[in-house]
Amino acid sequence: MSREGPPWTPEQAESRLRALELFGMRFGLDRMRRMMTALGSPQARLRSIHVVGTNGKSSTTRMIAAILERHGLRTGAYLSPHLISYAERVRIGGAEISPQELAEAIGRAATAADQVNRTLAGDDHVTQFELLTAAALWILAGREVDVAVVEAGLGGRYDATAVIGASVCALTNVGLEHTRWLGPTVRDIAAEKLAVVGDGATLAIGSDPHPDVLELAHEVARERGARVVLAPPGVPAGEELRAPGAFQQRNFALAAAGAQAHLERVGVKLRERAVREAAAATTVPGRLQVLAGEPLTVLDGAHNPDAVAALVESLPPLVGARALGLVVGVLEDKSAVEMLRQLLPLCARAWFTAPPNPRALPPATLESLAHQLGDVEVECEVRPAPAMHAARAWALEQPGRRAVLATGSIYLVGELMRVLDVRAELRPAGEAATVEAR
């Protein structure tokens, strides 16, 4: 497909993407399929691995890509959402693409989107996620990657990423989230996610799945002639995993199973040394990310009760006996009560704020919920930066004895990284990300 005019700039691309935020999300694959046709079907030129699930998708996607790269494969990855820059969503060879490369791809995908929009009835239109996904697939195909590891956005069956037709799928876990769109039970939600498993595919499943999920996975596999692989509960003893947290142990074990399934299909033998190297090197920004300096400050994008449970499980080794100040912002479609029920007993004081997203819960609503759950000292500050500065100032009153945790939304973590001038890429192993207040 040709496109008239000069390449788009990053500013033009961001303006187009921001404008689409107002229209929200719309399910269905018709728009995406039409866009792919207009772009010359880039997804058809890709070998791909599809990562679906409730939590851990971004981590698992990064880890699969890291393992495959260390087996000599030119690997691309598509992630969502981003923390600071849209360009973080597309990675090739372990590095994010440039804002300019993404902008040019957005410009091309926008031309295709405009063609599709003219054929749609009423107020139907290509969504922001569809535009980003189309641009990402265009880039990955154009860069001629050997394999693309693609993270699903929401669900699976009608998610824009479902057009890839992956030969390997990885299911991290299934929790009760987005029930309005995916169904009221774990089995309903699992059915939406497992719909991406194609005929003859390999399905790798994270350890200790819900019984309904495992039963349905085997049913789907029998219907489609697919193979099910259950990941072990964690990495082998003695293997060093750079990404902290018990939940990352489980994610990496699934990533290794998914990577092995792909390698078997392309006739490459899994090398344990390559897996160990990937484990020791892979970082996951925004997940148990520790900022350097005093006070100890941890950023984590846990945004639902299951993710908060994983955070709570992994937090003690990081904060020790320090009193904890909590900075929390949650979106309105999340289970804020259940999240607070787990977080508030850990903290001595809390600051409630609003992530930079139109679906953010008002801080006053969080305060009301907190008072229903127990007696905790709280403050409300709509803007994340002042909330974080207040929490860190409180922690500094007793150096070494207090710490700060910011969580509740990946959008909150991204905003705090931006205002604190923390890069989305982490530092070398053993170093925390530095922070500069501004």
Tell me which oligomeric state these chains represent.
single chain
Strand order of the largest sheet: 4-3-2-5-1-6-7-8
Our Rg estimate from Cα atoms comes to: 21 Å
**Main sheet specs:** 8 strands, mixed
Mean pLDDT over the residues: 92
Secondary structure: number of strands: 14
Structural class by SSE content: alpha/beta
| Count of runs of 4 or more consecutive helical residues | 16
Distance between the termini: 44 Å
Strand content: 5-15%
Q: Helicity level, as a percent range?
A: 40-55%
The low-pLDDT segments are 426-431
Please provide the ordered H/E string of secondary-structure elements. HHEHEEEHHEEHHEHEHHEEHHEHEHEHEH
Which overall shape is indicated by the principal axes computed on the Cα atoms? Answer: globular
Explain the overall architecture.
The strands form 2 sheets. The protein has an 8-stranded mixed sheet, with helices on both faces. It has a 6-stranded mixed sheet with strand order 9-10-14-11-12-13. Mean pLDDT is 92; it is low at 426-431. Strand 3 (90-92) and strand 4 form a beta hairpin. The chain is built from 16 helices and 14 strands. Helix 2 packs across helix 4 (99-117), helix 11 (305-314) packs parallel to helix 13 (336-343) and helix 13 (336-343) crosses helix 14. It has 438 residues and is α/β, with parallel strands linked by helices. The longest helix has 20 residues, at 246-265.
